Structures are given as structure tokens and as C-alpha cells.
Amino acid sequence: MRLAFCGNDNASAYNISAGVLRNVCFVDALNLVPHVFLLFITFPILFIGWGSQSSKVQIHHNTWLHFPGHNLRWILTFTLLFVHVCEIAEGIVSDTQMKSRHLHLFLPAIMGFVAATVSIVYYHNIETSNFPKLLLALFLYWIMAFVTKTIKLVRYCQDGVPFSQLRFCITGIMVILYGLLMAVEINVIRVRRYVFFMNPQKVKPPEDLQDLGVRFLQPFVNLLSKATYWWMNTLIISAHKKPVDLKAIGKLPIAMRALTNYVCLKEAYEEQKKKVADQPNRSPSIWLAMYSAFGRPILLSSTFRYLADLLGFAGPLCISGIVQGFQNTTNNTNTTEKLKDPSNSYLSSEEFLRNVYVLAVLLFLALILQRTFLQASYYVTTETGINLRGALLAMIYNKILRLSTSNLSMGEMTLGQINNLVAIETNQLMWFLFLCPNLWAMPVQIIMGVILLYNLLGVSALVGAAVIVLLAPIQYFIATKLAEAQKSTLDYSTERLKKTNEILKGIKLLKLYAWEHIFCTSVEETRMKELTSLKTFALHTSLSIFMNAAIPIAAVLATFVTYAYTNDKPLQPAQAFASLSLFHILVTPLFLLSTVVRFAVKAIVSVQKLNEFLLSDEIGDDSWRGGDSSVAYESCKKHTGLVTNGYFSWGSGLATLSNINIRIPTGQMTMIVGQVGCGKSSLLLAILGEMQTLEGKVHWSNVNETEPSFEASRSRNRYSVAYAAQKPWLLNATVEENIIFGSPFNKQRYKAVTDACSLQPDIDLLPFGDQTEIGERGINLSGGQRQRICVARALYQNTNIVFLDDPFSALDIHLSDHLMQEGILKFLQEDKRTLVLVTHKLQYLPHADWIIAMKDGMVLREGTLKDIQNKDVELYEHWKTLMNRQDQELEKDMDADQTTLERKTLRRAMYPRESKSQLEDEDEEEEEEEDEDDNMSTVLRLRTKMPWRTCWRYLTSGGFFLLFLMIFSKLLKHSVIVAIDYWLATWTSMDNENELRNAADAKNTKTYHVAVFSILSGAGIVLCLITSLTVEWMGLTAAKNLHHNLLNKIILGPIRFFDMTPLGLILNRFSADTNIIDQHIPPTLESLTRSTLLCLSAIGMISYATPWFLVALVPLGIAFYFIQKYFRVASKDLQELDDSTQLPLLCHFSETAEGLTTIRAFRHEARFKQRMLELTDTNNIAYLFLSAANRWLEVRTDYLGACIVLTAAVTSITEGPNSGLVGLGLLYALTITNYLNWVVRNLADLEVQMGAVKKVHSFLNMESENYDGYLDSSQVPKDWPQEGEIKIENLCVRYENNLKPVLKHVKAYIKPGQKVGICGRTGSGKSSLSLAFFRMVDIFDGRIVIDGIDISKLPLHTLRSRLSIILQDPILFSGSIRFNLDPECKCTDDRLWEALEIAQLKNMVKSLPGGLDAMVTEGGENFSVGQRQLFCLARAFVRKSSILIMDEATASIDMATENILQKVVMTAFADRTVVTIAHRVHTILTADLVIVMKRGNILEYDTPENLLSQEDGIFASFVRADM
Question: On the chain, which terminus has fewer CB atoms closer than 10 Å, C or N?
Fold first, then answer.
């Protein structure tokens, strides 16, 4: 068949006798002209690209100044391209019905398509180079195209072509589109004036684009890039080379920053407040405020959502059309089609849509559009949700800064509530916004679906729909049960963590007393409870999954069985597969509906809580701190503050402070003294304006403005008060940041302050000096250290006024003196700063310039010490006696140097630093050990590899039987589901062929088909239940085993492991990682296997129907592999960023709430607000990028899915065996599009979650202590050790076999019942010797023989349970007193009371409610340190062992308690051998034998009398130093 432009089967084709424009073919040729013109002009410009050289505005992104009408132009161009496709298709379809090729039918359309594509590329290039003059070419093109199309349309009208003909419609639409594009072009000229005008308009790019830090380009790119997230490519590809960090994701664009949105929401909320101002009982509505601030994007998103949902129904309709058309062509192959006459070559729309290939292309385009709209809808809601969260956080924070203190202290608003608001309620609202469009999109989707089903199948469709609707409430019921189960699980796991934490804190004691197993079982008990509620959780999860899978099967079964028995006509494949597809569409909204309803309920509750919080009391407006009070000028000079006739309360309405009249002299030191609870701290807070003023006034003078001598202090921060609260408050920051607290850093001043507070020695102990993180998440400091840092902060600030609230309470005497002399008297007085000091230490009274004595919330006396001495002799005498008593305490106290102790604990906490980093490295991939060359390629390989080994470990820890059961049932289930659909295909295709047989046959086959179909469906439903249960069951078993192994491994670990590993690290394995293993991995695993198997079975099915499909699958498969590979890496990084930026934000909130008074006194609200906004934005940008990355992936997998559908459709139409299989292939191709992105996202999630399993495994490979000895426990005498005779022979000890020995060849002999003292400097090996008795350390040479048995031969448990020890740090556990003394419950009550009597605790315990069963709080906080130490003594006495070891037991207690201890040792333990490790030498002067140690060797070994007589001996020098 020869080619000719106008076809060569018609003589009149080139005839122009009736006028040129009457010739159809000529008009078509004329239509080619504009397209060719455009290509000729634009190609050289695009290739040379000279437009980009002359760029006037340099922008770092190749983004953009959008020209006016930018988005409209893109939309019009896309519509134009679509119409061109229709035109081409129409031309080709018409052409196939001719005798010869008629190129004029489709060639101009193809050229038009090319030209339209070029026009948008050309436009984009001009726009990015900002060179609008070149747009003239496009302007001309639009005009020419418009004219030629109009000519064609007019020609059709003259010929009387009816409107129903497709070609007429297409031409009409094109005229409109070209006209609109022309209008857009004219508009650009009008606005930008680049031509025909004298002065072209100058433009600047948006502010965000001038800022190099903004990397989030979604708002600024063109429409195509917006829809496909093309701009994300650079980030996702670069993630492969180096990890994504905060620098890579840059800053948030201005419109999305928390501040912008906060202003928006605040204004809307204030509007609401105004509306209800006159109605006292109504509260302003946050909902309306949210709607007015964020309503527009929600509406936009809903519009996208509706469009996507409507386009979603194109799938079933096209399937039905394709299968129908395919059936017709196969039936009609024998009848020859009549060829059309060329002069009448018009197609009607119906004929056009009957063509199967056209339907396939339409299906493809509909899918692409639907997916684009859906992702756009998701993106818009996500962005709005993030904006809303930022705004809410800022609102909550601003409110916190203004909360009245009484609210916090009286418990109306607890810190927990505030943390919940921040962490939970705002997120609930954000999630609700994400799911919001579903609320109104779903009902529409459901109604449409049911209508279409009814059209296809009639009444029987309603049966199926009814099944779905009736089962939906059950879904909701399951969902609520799930939430309950999750809550109870949370309670149990909190309890379990509390117990685990106690074990880890007291692990040394547990090991020394051989009690690990008792505590271990108690944790296991709680874990069993937790697992029981996890079981209910798992059961409901699996039910939910089962419902999801089983509902569509049940609905389809009900529908088709009903149809088979109610309708005479057999079921057609077209009907069957279209309705199957519709059922799949219907199930999703119904399943989601239960979730959305649940979230809506939660959101309503959250809003109520938020509203309560936003309307709670605020602190009064403290204008008086502005110093504008009109007090007489004279008094101003002398006094910084005056309180006249003040009555203050903590919000209860009762005055806490009454009748206060005081003056605070400027530049001097005022001391406030009084008994505990007489209102000293309240007075400070009242002056600071934190209390409610019932009556009276507080005046602040603005003295600094008046006197010239105060020139220097002008630079100081006026009206800000440096305040150190009674309870020290630290920021989560470095030591330095905590001290300078936002002031400029001045090295000299900083040094002076740290010296005055004697912080230098403490700072030197920290791993990174003053750059070490302290605070909530940093290193734990002791109370005294924290207090000194707070005082240092107050001293460092450059303010006129300093308030110190009891700064000496946690300090020992040396430090207090030093702080008083250096810090307060020297540093503050030199600066002439006004100081108000609350204290109990009366010996400092002589230093005070002014004294305020308080009693019961009133001022008792005010004046100088002299005044009081003269006027109130009684009070002065009272103080004097108290001062003397304090001085005596001083004498005693000189020994108890608390600071050295604190430093010692700090050193103990710190010394494992180097090993900590070692431990973290072990977490890294095991493979790294094999090849040490740490070059980029290996790192990249590790970053892109799935942790398969860890996955295998996880799966096998659930047991092989369950693993096999899971795999088997999964495979079986999916085979059955495929079988159901395949059976349906054969049944419907068979019916068609059997139409002609007799009725009886037909009835039998019908029964047979229905029976098999029902059996298969039933089997499918049962298998759904079994698989969902096995996955959850396996996950539970794995979680149970992993936790059990972890706990047992850790509790049997050597003590050195606990010294080296930070407690937080171990606790993390039990909290975060266990939680992931318990709750997150099973559903992810389920979802992953389900979607993967669905995709695989679908591909298998399509390939079975049309083998040619496999050829097309290869490039698609390669594309998919790369997409998932790149996405996984980027997603993992972004997820880590999101997690790591969330914690500082939450911490900042709780920190602020705790330190409110301090922040307000310092007047640092603005700085903290700024910090909060920065943290919020950082977290939001990470989350925004994470969701953009998810959209990036989904758009790509969805487009791949659409390509799969297109190839499947085309191959099955050309190659398909029968109509049933064609329908089946298409149905499966459509399901692939839904599940492809789930495969990748679940893979990415699983990879992150497997990290938890890996971390737990890294602990499981640790060495345990060797618990079994050579002797069996039965061979050891029951009452061993009876005598208490100890022989130490040539003992060598080290902590680990790769470390130096700490004891070298120690020899000693201790007779039964002797009292032995061991002393020596720190690090001389005293404590190591005490640990050696219990084999806590590695004895690698020599031996210890007790009562004739070598202890290294004993089982550890036996050895440790027969000796007793009192440790330096007294440790109590939460539980009853009885449990603390005797956790094994072996002793009688009399024995316990006797022990308490010996420890002189009997009376105190008797007075407690419950006696022996009185509760001890966590860590024994409800007893003083001395009492705790005495409890430990009682505990040692309860265990009747003949050997007692005291390890520096008296170091942390006062004299009185120490005397008790000494007495008890002499009397109650008279017949036992006691070994005392001494911290202060005078405690062992009464011993029978003294051993002096140095560097692991024994230097002196004799009675104390003999040692003291050696003048130059070490022991003698120790005693002299201690006197």
C-alpha cells in the first residue's frame, strides 16, 4: 500500500475547483505550517542556548521567576497535549478504516504534539534564564495555530459536520485552547512590558530563593517538577554518596516557618476570642481559628482528592470496555468489516471509544493523572499539617512563658500535662489534618462505587456492598480495642523499665549479695503481664489484617453466587472483572474510615485539652519592673527595691506572705534568714512578681540612670535579675553555655566565676571539659555540682541585682566558705551589685549589710546586725547559740569532705568514657571487621545493603517451626487467592462458549462452578486468618525470646561491663529497642510479605496470560530496583534526622517549664522563644523532606505501575487467549500499582527497625561471669564459713585479662573474729581487695582460702550468698522495708526487728505506717543518707555470715550515724570477722590489725599501736593528717 499525504484511493483528493479552502486535505496541510514554523525558530535557540548567557538576574537555583500565568500555561499545555493525543488516535483509527493510508488524518496532529512539547520546554528555558523577549516566537505560534484551526472549524461548519462527530469536537476544543494560550501570552506582555513598552518592569526573585540556605524548592519549581518531585532527585541521589545531614536539607522557606504560621493562627484565635468576649460561658473555638488560618490548602487538597477518586473509577470502566471489545473482536473475526468511503471518514465518539487500544491508552493516562492528583493531595495535607503543628507549638510555648507560677506549683498544670500537649496532642491534630480529606472524600467514593456496581450487576451487587458495609463497624470495634491494648501495654512496660532501671543502678549490690535472680524474676513477671497485653494487641492486629483481606473475598462470593442464581443470563467476563476491581476500590475507604473516625475523636479531645491550657491563668503584667514607679527620688538612690504593705498568695486566695514592708539597699548584701518554711523563697519570688499580689506594691528604682558614678553599670542589662533558685536548674547544653546563659563570653570573667564556685576541678574531670553536655540528656552531676553551676550562672550575668536562694544548701563547709569569700564578698561586692541572699548558715550573718528575719510568712525584724543586737537581744542570743552549734558541726564536718566524694562519683561515672566509644563502634556492621580499608565504596555498599543477616536472626529467634508455618501459610494463601480469580476467569469464559448448549447441562455446570468457587473462597478466608495470626504469633515469640535472653545476659555480665557501659545505653535496649521489636516489626513484616507476594503473584498471572509481557518487564524491573535502592538510603537518613531533631524540641519544652522562674527573672523569654522556633523549624524541615521523599517514591512507583498496566493491556489485547484471562491480567496489573510503593516503604521501615534487633544482638555476644565452680553446692558445708578464718596467699588480681594487675602478690592472714582495717590512698587497691573476696574481679594468680576452702572452686552463687558486705553508697530498692532487708524471704519477723534494733532504726520503722511493710520509694529517697546506710547495716546483720566486709561504709554519713556503726561493729559483730576499708583513718584505730596498701602492694601490716609507734611510718602520717 503506497503512502500519500491525501491518500491515493480518491481521485478528487487534490481537486481545488471549489476553492482552496474547500479541500479537506489542503486545510490539514495548512495546519502543519505553524508547527513547522515553531520548530524552525526554537530549535536553534534551544541548542545554542544563548538565552541563558544573557541572564540578568543571577539566582543560585535554576529556578525562578515565574512569569505571570505560569501555572495556567502549564495546565493549558497539558490539556493541549492530551487533546493532541486524542486527535492522533482519532486520525489513526479513522485511517485503519480506509483502503489506503491517509497521512493528512494524523500527521498534522503528530506535528502538533511535538510542537506543543517543544513550546513548553522552550518556555521553561526562557523562564529560568529570565529573558522574556524570546517569548515573541511563542506568541506568533499561538496566533498562527489559532488562525489555522479556526479555518478548519469554519470549514467543518460549512460542510455541516454534526457535533456528535469526534473530529469536530476536537477541533473546537483546540481553537479554545490556542485562544486561551494566546491570552496568557498577551497577559505576560501586559505585566512584564518586555516589548511594545518603553520601560520594561524590573523584577526580583522571591526572598527565599536569594537565600542559599533554602533547599526545599517545592513551592518554587514549575508545575511538572511539583507534580513529580523532580527537584528531589539531587538530594536523593546525593544521599547515596554521603549521608543526608541538617546542612543538606537547609532551612524552611519563610511561608512554612513556625513564626509565620504562629502569627496566622494567633490572629485567627484572637478573632475567635473577640467574638465570645461578651459571652462568659463560651470558650473561643480553636477549630474555627484553625479553619480560618489553614482552610484554603485543606480545600485545595480535598479538590485534588475528589479528582483522584473519580479518576480511580476509570480503571474498572476501562477493564469492562477492553474485555467487552476483545470478546466482540474474537467473536466477529469471521465477518469482514466494510471499508469506509474516504469522503465520509468521520468517527463518532462511541465508535472511537469501542476501540480497545484507545481504551488501553486512556486507562494509562487516567492512572497517571489519578496518581498525580492523589500524591498532590497527600503533599498539600502534609505540608498544612506541619504548618499547623509549628503554629500550635509556638502558641503553647508562648503560653508556657506566661503561665502563672501558682498554676505549676499548685498542680493545676503539671509538667507531664505540658509535655503531653507538646508530644501527643499537637501530633494528634497534625495526623487528623493528614487524614482530614478522607472524611469527605470517602462517602463520595463509596456512593459512586455502589452505583457503578449496581449498573454492572443489578440487585446482586447490593448484596456484596451490604456485606462490606455491615462488616465495617466490626473494624471500628477492633480499632478501639487495639488502642486500649496499646495503653495497657504501655503501663506494664513503664513498670518493667522502672524495675530494670533499679536493677542496673544497684547491680553491684545484687551481685555481691547473689540476689540477681530474685530481681530478674520480678522483671520477668512484669514482662509476662506485658506480653499478655501484647497478646491481645497482636490478636486484634491480626484480626484487623484478616478483616482487611477477607471482606473483599466474602463480598465477591456473596455477589457472584447471588448473581448466578437470580439472573438468567450467564456472567460475562467484562462484568465479573470490572466488579472485582470495583470491590477492591470500595474496601480501602471502608477500612480507612474506622481509622479516620478514631483520629477525629482523638482530635476533638486534643482540642479540648489545648483550649483549657490556652485559657489558664497567666502571670500579672510586671510593669513595675520597668522602673517607672513614682517613689520619692531620695529613697530611690539608696534602695533597689521597696515592698510596701504587701500581701502575696500562691493563687489559692490565702495570703502566704502578709504585711510585708521591706527595703533592699542598693549595691549591698541583704540576707534573709528564718526557719524552714517561713516564706523566705516566697519572698524572693514575690519581689520577682511570680506570686499573686493581693494588695500592696513592689517598687523597683531606676537608680542607674541618675548617678554619674554608675556610668559603667549602664551597659548592664537593666531590669533583669540574676536569680539562682533553690532547686538547681540546668539547661541541656555544655557547662559553658549553662554558665554564660546567652551573655557574651568574657574569658577573664568566666575564669573568675568558675574559680569562685570551685568548679574547675569538676570541669577537669568531665570528658570534654566545659564543652561537655550536662542536663537532662547529658551527664548526671550531683546536687552540689549542679547548684554551684547555677550560682556561677547568676554571678556571671552582668545584672545589677543578684538573688541567691539558699546557695549553700547542697555544699559542704569548705565550698560554702570559698563561695562566700571569693564569689560573694569579693566578686559581687567589687562590682557594687545588689545581692539578696537567702540562707540557713547563720555564721555568715556578720558579713551582711542588711538583714531580714522572717517567721511564718511575716517579717520578724529588719535592719543591720548591730540594730538587731541592740533592739532584739533575745533573737540575737538565739542566733548566737545556733551559730556556735553550727561551728561545732564545722569541727566534725571537717572530715566529711563531701566534695571529694562527689568528684569521686563523677570520676567513676566518667572513667568508662574511652570504652563507651569502643562499644558504640561495635554496633557498626560486622562486615567492617573483615575488610579494614575504610574507603567510600565499602561504606556505600553498607549503606545500600539490607541487613539480611539480622533479619534472619530475628526470624529464627521466633523458632523454626513458626517460621516454616508462616512461610507455608503465606504461600498457600496467595495461591488460593490467585486460584479464586483464575476460576472466575474460566467460569465466565466457559459460560460464553456454552451459551448454545441445552439447559440441563448449563444448570449442572453452574452448580459445579459455584460450588468450586465457594469452596475456594472459604479456604481463602480461613487462610487469611491463619496467616495473620502466625505472623503476629511469631513476632511475639521472637520478642519474648530476645528480651529474655537480653535480660539474662546482662544480669550475669561481669561488673566491669557495667562500669564501662553507660546506663542509658543499656536502658535504651530495654526501652526503645524492645518496643520496636514488640510492636513495630511484626506489622511491618506482615505488610511487606503481603505486598511483595501480591505483586509477584500478579506479575506471574499476567505473564501466564501473555508471555510477551515478560519482555517489557525487564526495563521496568531495572527502573524499580534503582528507585528502591536510592530511596531506602535517603529515607533512612531522613528518618534518623526526624527522630534526632524531635528530642531536643521536647526537651526544650520541659526545660522551659521547669526553669520558668529563672528564665523570667533573667528576662530571657525572647531568647528562649527564638530557640524554640529554631528547633521547631529544624524538626519540621526534616519531617517535610521525609514526606516529600515518600511522595517522590510513590509518584515513581505509581508511574511504573501505570506502565505495567499499559504493557499488560497492549500485550493481552494482541496476544490474549480468551477474554477471561485478559480481564484477569488487567485486574492484577491494577493491583500492582497499589502495592509497589508499599513494598519499598516497608523495606525501608524494616531496615530501620532491624537496627533495634542488631543492637540487642550486640549485647547478646558479651561474656558472662563464670557461675559454676569445681565443687558442687552440695559439697560445701551448710554452715560454711563457720569460723571466719581468711588466708590470702600470693594474690594477684586484675579487672580484665588485657589490663594491668591492680593487686600484686598480696599475702595476709586474718584470724577468726578479728577486726581488720585496710587503708591507703585512692587507687591503692583497697576496694579491689574487697571485691576479690567475692570474685567480682579476675584472680589470675594466688588464692584466697576461707575456712579451708579455696574460694575459686566454689560456685559463685554459693560464695556470694555466704558472705556479707556494706557498700560505700547505700542502695535501697523500691518495695517494702522487709523486701529490702530480706528479698529471699528466709527470715522471721523477730530476726528482722532484731536487726533494725541493732541498727537503731527500730523506733523509726515502728512509727511508719505498716511497720516492716512500709514502702520505700525508688532509690530510698524517702530516707536520709544516714538512715539508708543504717538499713544497709541491718541488711548485713540479717544475713548471719561470719565474715563482714565494710567498703568505706562511713564515707557518706554524718558523725552520729558513724558512731552507731562503730558501736554495732564492736558489739553485734563481736564474734564475726570484720574487714573495714577505711576512708578516714580514725575509724580503724580500734581495730585488731591494720593493713596499709599502696599501688596494689601491702606496705605495713601490724596492730595499730605498733604502727603508730613508728614515727616515720605511713599509717602514722595518715593519722597525723587526719587529726
Answer: C
Instruction: Identify whether the C-beta of residue 763 lies closer than 8 Å to the C-beta of residue 770.
Output: yes
User: Does the pLDDT at position 1301 exceed 70?
Assistant: yes
User: With contact defined as beta carbons under 8 Å apart, do 831 and 753 qualify?
Assistant: no
Q: Which residue, 1136, 1117, 1121, is CA-closest to 1247? A: 1136
Residue 640, H or E segment: strand 639-649
Please, are residues 692 and 764 in contact by the beta-carbon 8 Å criterion? no
Read off the amino acid at residue 15: N
Distance CA 1403, CA 291 (A): 65
Give the gyration radius of the chain's Cα atoms.
42
How far is 475 from 540, CA to CA, in rounded Å? 10
* Alpha carbons 1074 and 1186: distance in angstroms, whole number: 25
Angle value at C-alpha 916, between 915 and 918, nearest 5 degrees: 65
Which amino acid would we find at residue 37?
A: F
**What number is the average pLDDT over the span 1173-1193?**
94
Residue 812 has phi, psi (to 5 degrees) of -85, 180
Half-sphere exposure of 11 (CA within 13 A, CB side): 0
- DSSP letter assigned to residue 247: H
Residue 523: is its pLDDT beyond 50?
Answer: yes
Per-residue model confidence (pLDDT) at position 1001 = 75
1373 touches 506 (CB < 8 A): yes
Cell of 1034: 511469631
Residue 59 predicted with pLDDT over 50 = no
Q: Around Cβ 1126, how many Cβ atoms within 10 Å?
A: 21
Separation of alpha carbons 1326 and 1319, rounded Å? 7
The answer to whether the CB of 1030 falls within 8 A of the CB of 987 is no
Among the ranges 91-95, 616-620, 1469-1473, which has the highest mean pLDDT value? 91-95
Per-position DSSP letters for 709-740, written without gaps between them = GGGGGGGSEEEEEEEE-SS----SEEHHHHHH
Q: What are the backbone angles phi and psi of residue 697, rounded to the nearest 5°?
A: -140, 150
Phi, psi of 8 (to 5 degrees): -120, 30
Among 945, 994, 1289, which residue's Cα sits nearest to residue 1128? 945
Q: Which residues on adjacent β-strands are paired with residue 1490?
A: 1317, 1502
Q: CA 809, 814, 818 angle in degrees (round to 5)?
A: 90
Write out pLDDT tens, residues 1048-1082: 998 888 888 887 777 778 888 888 889 989 888 99
Mean pLDDT, the chain, integer? 82
Per the CB < 8 A criterion, the answer to whether 828 and 757 are in contact is no
* Cα atoms found within 13 Å of the Cα of residue 188, Cβ hemisphere only: 28
**How many residues are present in the chain?**
1523
**The predicted structure's pLDDT at residue 658:** 86
- CA dist., res. 1442 & res. 1282, Å (int): 6
CA-based end-to-end distance of the chain: 122
The type of residue at 776 is E
Strand 1286-1294 vs strand 1338-1346: parallel, antiparallel, or unpaired?
A: antiparallel
Of all residues in the chain, the percent with pLDDT exceeding 70 is: 87
pLDDT band for position 1519 (50/70/90)? confident
Please state, in angstroms and rounded to a whole number, the distance separating the CA atoms of residues 1128 and 1132: 6
DSSP calls for 556-598: HHHHHHHHHHH-SSPPPHHHHHHHHHHHHHHHHHHHHHHHHHH
35 vs 1486: CA distance, rounded Å: 112
Contacts of 232 (CB under 8 A, 6+ apart): 1188, 1189, 1192
- List, in order, residues 6 or more apart from 1419 with CB less than 8 Å away: 502, 505, 1371, 1372, 1374
713 vs 3: CA distance, rounded Å = 98
DSSP string, 458-474: THHHHHHHHHHHHHHHH
pLDDT-based confidence at 394, cuts 50/70/90? very high
Enter the pTM of the model: 0.84
Q: What is the mean pLDDT of residues 427-436?
A: 90
Q: Quick one: CA torsion of 118, 123, 126, 130, rounded to 10 degrees? A: -170
